[in-house]
Amino acid sequence: MVRARAADGSVPGARHDPYRLALAIEGGGSRGTYSSGMAVELERRGLTQVFDDVYGSSMGAITGAWLLSGKAQHGASFWWHPDVMPTVIRPRAALRRKPVVDLEFLMNEVYQRWAGLDFDGVLAGPGRLHPIATDADTGEVVDLAEYLTGAESLKLALRGSAGLPLLAGPLIRLGGRRLLDGGLTETIPFHSALRDGCTHVLVLRSRRVDERPLPPPRVENLAVTAFLRRTAPATLGAWRGRTERRRADDERLAAAGGLAQVLVPPGSPEVSRLAVDPALLRRAFDLGAEAMATALDIGV
């Protein structure tokens, strides 16, 4: 379908086929460099407009915004800019009770002032962005597309979608909701696309082919559980069931049907959610781009 739509030059809202094709982008903090590279390869090949909708969870939502802006490659270059990631991700900030992941700085300083991301332009194009987050008061997945009315609401939606529990500071409020990281309820946001009526979904993963979901380390589990119990008790079930949902997602994606996924190959380096090493992040980005190129050239 990607090849056919590219060949006939159709755009969202004016298709020559009866299908609805979505792009779903997995996040994972700095692991999102992998799926970011895949998205940039789509942009390089002029394939952005073959997708009717773009769904992203956490950092995947941010990658989706850059893709719809038409400047995904430019945006991705800030992953390995020496002044960016060490400023956005600051583990020692926790000692001063400051956010470990400074998403406000990322949106307002890095993306708006330094990189020149046209937030209004993201919303003006024919493709629709669907940032996926978790409703802190219900524990349910929420698609923030309906709340996107302009640049400021988009910034809040992207921050809310990437609002890692305990690490990203105070919860973002948008549309009367308190928001947490979309990965709590929908790490790989193809479910939202299918619920919306998409017939086919191409999923960009931030994990290796040979990587299996594992429970979080005990210390992390205890810390996040305590935070959620105080701040958003309705999300505790989502946190505790996350590993099993990831395993179920892997099984469903492997079964294909109207779903296709792109993963990076075995042996690719391990990238933690809080990685800041420029060389590592650039390597992960390049491997993601290569995986997408291979998928497009020989078939997923």
Automatic annotation (TrEMBL):
Motif DGA/G: chain residues: 181-183
Domain PNPLA: 23-194
Superkingdom field: Bacteria
InterPro entries for the chain: Acyl_Trfase/lysoPLipase, NTE, PNPLA_dom
Pfam families membership: Patatin
Gene Ontology MF term list: hydrolase activity
Short sequence motif GXGXXG: positions: 27-32
Keyword Lipid metabolism on entry: yes
Keyword Aminoacyl-tRNA synthetase part of the UniProt annotation: no
GO-annotated biological processes: lipid catabolic process
Source organism phylogeny: Bacteria, Bacillati, Actinomycetota, Actinomycetes, Pseudonocardiales
Residue interval(s) of motif GXSXG: 56-60
Originating species: Amycolatopsis alkalitolerans
Active-site positions on this chain: S58, D181
Protein keywords: Hydrolase, Lipid degradation, Lipid metabolism
Designated name of the protein: Patatin family protein
